[in-house]
Amino acid sequence: MKENPNGKFHIQGIAWNRNNEYVPLNSEKLTSLTGISVKIHEHIEGWGESLAFEMVNTTKESRHLKVFFLIEWLACKEDGVGVLSLSKDTFWNYSGKLVAITNIVSCAGSVKKSIYPLNLKGLQLWKKSLSNGSLYYYPITNGLNMMVYMLDFSFKPFEVKQGKVYAIEGALEEEVSNLSDRIKNGLAFPKEK
Question: How much is the pLDDT for 6?
Answer without folding.
Answer: 59
